Amino acid sequence: MTRHPYPFAKQQENKAPKPVQLSVLQGMLSLAFRHHQAGRLAEAERIYRRILALDSRQADTLHLLGMIAYQTGRQEAAVEMFQKAIAINAGKASYHSDLGVALQAQGRLNEAAACYERALSLKPNFAEAHGNLGNIHHAQGRLDEAVARHELAVSLNPKLPESHFNLGNCLQDKYKLAEAAACYERALALKPDYAEAWCNLGSTRKAQGKLDEAVACYRRQLALQPNSDGAFYNLGNALLAQGKSDEAVKSYERALALNPDFAEAHGNLGNLLHVMGKLHEAEAHHLRALALKPSFPESHYNLGNALQDQDKLEAAVASYERALALKPDYAEAWCNLGNARKTQGMLEEAAACFERALTLKPNFAEAHANLGTTLQAQGKLDEAVAHHERALALRPNLPDSHYNLGNALQDQDKLEEAVACYERALSLKPDFAKAHYNLGCARHASGHLEEALLYYKRAQIFQPDFAQASFSESLALLSLGDFADGWRKYESRWKTKEHVTRMRTYAQPLWKGEKLAPDGRLLIWNEQGVGDEIMFAGFIPDVIRTGNRCVLDCDARLNPLFARSFPGIEIVSTGNPDPEHPPMLDFAAHLPSGSLPGLFRTTHAAFAATASPYLAADPLETEKFRASYADGKRLAGLSWYTKNRKTGRHRSIDLSLFAPWFARPDIRWISLQYGDHDELEKQAAQAGAPILIDRSIDPLSDIDRFAAQVAAMDLVVTIDNSTAHLAGALGVPTWVLLPFAPDWRWLLARDDSPWYPSLRLFRQPKLGDWPAVIQKVLSAL
After folding, report:
1. Of 27, 74, 150, 600, which is most buried with the most CB atoms under 10 A?
2. How many other CB atoms are there within 10 angstroms of residue 585's CB atom?
């Protein structure tokens, strides 16, 4: 906002003290004054000094010389001249007032105020002095006193445009926008070419949300001041508020062409380019702003935002920390530092940052929301829900907060409440692709697969590259038995961040099921976890039947088991190769193992080709286990939990729930559970479970020996984990205990598995109802 002192009063010529010089001095002063009024300041000053050489006590001449010093930025000289004039003639109010103007320009506000008071003691109706004293009060933050002074100035001289202008400034700072605008308009009625009034009227109209009028005001200012970098800057801000990003960019660029060192213009242009996705350009402008104003915390903050969105997290953190070193109470910087720490996986540090932001700004909705998502990632769901609800209490129409609350509720298995949150988010933002997707996930988890498919498809309409939605759609289709479309969409897994394996970039083509040339070999390589590898290995017999020579690259722990089971192919284990630089092998075509079902199981009828069993445990080791465990009872292997972070809590079962089974006298229970042996024995003791934990077995490191142990069982009872796949592939009678909304591979509403003929499935009748499953298994036993 521009504020002006009142103009100096027009001067009256004093009578010369020496009659002999009167006509000469009057003529010289008249000539000098004409030069002065015409802006020829050097000529005027030269004559004023000649007059003073003739008579050093010419008070008006000293005063006028002080005015020239003020106009040319020589404030110390101006003060000296005004003081000399006052020493000769202390009774002229204008001398005191103008001395106040010069002192005010030096920041000497209290001294300036005293000058204005002296001027008013000599001339109580001196409108300009009242106005300038009002400006002092305004600068000191005494707005009510400032308004009173300016209103008095206006009443004394309503035709002085500066009085209306400065009153408007005070009213604008009191946020009385309509009254401020009226003052600026009165100033402009008196002085249509008052560029500063057009500027401040534009600022008022922008603050009122009257953006078209604001833009018009700034354009009027530019018509008067075409080289005003500030006017182009303000115009850019108004255009940006109108959503006219391209025009705003041009306006900021014009401001910078006029003033390349305009730090605020660099900063605002950087922020706009950031929003437009031009992150490198945004970063460059923020760096330039910092070079100009290195102690400006907002520039460090804005640079941090641009760096964070480029995934330059360490650099972003450093920028936020510099902003906070300069401004420790910068709540927004604490919040975004928390976001960077959260992205880095430093959840405790992130939570601390959000809490600090909330200490500084308790009603900071975004900080509540971000703390909520962080607590959710830490598994502190009740606290997460509380913060999401607080964010919504502060900003009830923020779709992201409804979405985040839905996510936390879904993690608490409060699916219907989560659905309501996602629906609210979508009512506020119908094209919110992630909300469509997570609504689909909630309906999927509650068993409503047809609805889930609808929302997965909608997510992809609003975000065509939403690979996770396409992948989830494939899983829903496979669950419903739509294998043709399901396997086709299953290929979208490679584009998702959640897929644990990356596509290898071989020069050779992907195999499409064709017979290769006699000298060409086919490479099948492993993906996902051990359980998935075992499941997809069920298609190796189909590959062998194509007549191709085959190489199977598998997890090293599976190598002995696969070598025994598939003697007709070469088994290798290359570890976890860099997808961009995979191991050099001799082959003509390749395929990841998870893509094999898309070639061989596109219909229900195709599952008739499933081999059972297709894995072979070491027979000698198997017999050793049977002999060591034998006590005349049936041997039943049991596995009851998985450490999978995403779905483990739905699939795992507390060991104490199996108590009714353990009462059966004809069964000996053998642990097939991976994990620390001491911890497993502790769980068994706490549950009172008579279950044998064989310390010679480590299911995670020695899978071949574990397979022999599993093969020694008369029955395997397991949750949905890798043990289920291994037992099924070995052809062991296996009962799998499934949650209400199971993994896609178990399909729906059936108690058998097309993947493994030896499996029997026991499903929860409703979400979380393991006791019903336990009772059904007890009856089957």
Report:
1. 150
2. 16
Instruction: Enter the tokens of residue 215.
Output: 């833009």
Q: Dihedral through CA 130, CA 133, CA 139, CA 143, nearest 10?
A: -50
Please give the Cα distance from 94 to 116 (Å, whole number).
9
How many separate domains does the chain show?
2
Give the pLDDT confidence of 200-232 residue by residue, as tens digits.
Answer: 999 999 999 999 999 999 999 999 999 999 999
* Angle at alpha carbon of residue 77, lines to 13 and 139, rounded to 5°: 95
- Do 587 and 678 fall into the same domain? no
Q: Is residue 647, in this structure, part of any structural domain at all? A: yes
Q: Last residue of some domain: 575, 609, 643? A: 609
pLDDT tens, residue by residue, 392-432: 999 999 899 999 999 999 988 899 999 999 999 999 999 99
- N-terminal to C-terminal alpha carbon distance within the chain: 85
What would the two tokens of residue 190 be? 């008196």
User: Is 13 part of any domain?
Assistant: no
CA–CA separation, 747 vs 754, rounded Å? 9
Q: Are 671 and 638 in contact (CB under 8 A)?
A: yes
Cβ-contact 135, 100 below 8 angstroms = no
Whether cis (ω within 30° of 0) applies to the bond prior to 613 is yes
The 3-state secondary structure of 46-80 reads HHHHHHHHHCCCCHHHHHHHHHHHHHCCCHHHHHH
pLDDT tens digits, one per residue of 420-478: 999 999 999 999 999 999 999 999 988 899 999 999 999 999 999 999 999 999 999 99
Asked if 626 and 763 sit in the same domain, the reply is yes
In a domain, 593, yes or no: yes
CA distances from 65 to 26, 27, 32, 72 (A): 16, 17, 10, 11
Q: Residue 408 half-sphere exposure, CB side, CA atoms within 13 Å?
A: 27
Counted residue by residue, the chain has a size of: 781
Instruction: Check: CB of residue 18 under 8 Å from CB of residue 38.
Output: no
Handedness of CA 687, 691, 696, 701 (dihedral sign): negative
Query: Does residue 552 sit in the same domain as residue 626?
Result: no
CA distance 299 to 13: 54
Sheet holding 549-553, edge to edge: 570-572, 549-553, 521-525, 589-592
Q: Six-digit token pair at 210?
A: 């009257």
d(CA 653, CA 646): 15
Quick check: 524 and 591 in contact, CB under 8 A? yes
Residue 467 covered by a domain: no
Residue closest to 234 by CA, chosen among 192, 286, 199: 199
Rg of the chain on CA atoms, in Å = 41
Number of H helices, E strands in the chain: 39, 10
Q: Do 115 and 100 meet the contact criterion of CB atoms below 8 Å apart?
A: yes
Examine the domain organization and report whether 629 and 725 are in the same domain: yes
CATH of the domain at 712: 3.40.50.2000
Strand residues in 494-615 grouped as ranges (E): 521-525, 549-553, 570-572, 589-592
Structural domain that includes position 582 = 521-609
Residue where one domain finishes, among candidates 580, 609, 638 = 609
Q: Which one, of 746, 764, 748, 765, lies nearest residue 756 by Cα?
A: 746
